[in-house]
Amino acid sequence: MKRNGEVMESFKEMALDWKVPYPTNRYCNPGVPESAKMEYHKHCDPSNLCKIIWTLTDCHSVVPPQPYYEACVASGCSEEHPSTECQSMQTYAALCGLHGVCVDWRRQANGQCEVTCPQDQVYKPCGEARRNTCFSRDVAMDAFSSQNNTSVFVEGCYCPDGKILLNDHDGTCVSVCGCTAQDGSVKQPREAWEHDCQYCTCDEATLNISCFPRPCAESSPINCTKTGFVRKIKARLDDPCCTETVCECDIKTCIINKTGCDLGFQPVVAISEDGCCPIFSC
Question: Ranges for the VWFC domain (predicted)?
Answer without folding.
Answer: 179-248
